[in-house]
Amino acid sequence: MGIVTHNWGVMSVLGAVVVNLLLLFGIKSRVKYTRAMTLYTPIVGTTIGMVVFTGVVMMAAKHLDFTLENIAMILFATLLIILEVKRSKHLANVDRKDENSFMEHRKYALKIFLAQIVMVLSISFWMWA
Fold first, then answer.
1. Over the stretch 35-63, which tens digit does the pLDDT of each residue have?
2. What is the C-alpha separation between 117 and 80, in angstroms, rounded?
3. How is residue 63 annotated by DSSP?
4. 21-26, Cβ contacts within 8 angstroms, sequence gap of 24 or more
5. Alpha carbons 76 and 70: distance in angstroms, whole number
6. Residue burial 69-82, b: 16+ Cβ < 10 Å; e: rest
7. Distance (Å, whole) CA 4 – CA 98
């Protein structure tokens, strides 16, 4: 049951990133986008936290065996958290009066979201194979 919960957590992280992408391109107003991210960012953090927590439980069930796969998952989870923090800080630094600043944030956030999707899919396919 633990691995199933972990797998659902990973799928929810992927879903959260896709929703982030939809919000990024669906909301044209910087003010509305910032408000949406204020509400949605904790959800993304919770999904990442769920994956980390279930991963820790699974490692404990495996008697803390540090296999290459476990180390890779720990690194990927850490990178996901770092990328989310960078994206969030970048949005906080967007100039409220400059529309070009928001467009730059969109490009920056797109790169981060695509990197997150690649990371989640690559580790998922590696664990699945």
1. 999 999 999 999 999 999 988 888 888 77
2. 10
3. T
4. 21/110, 21/113, 24/106, 24/109, 24/110, 24/113, 25/106
5. 10
6. eeeebeebbeebee
7. 46
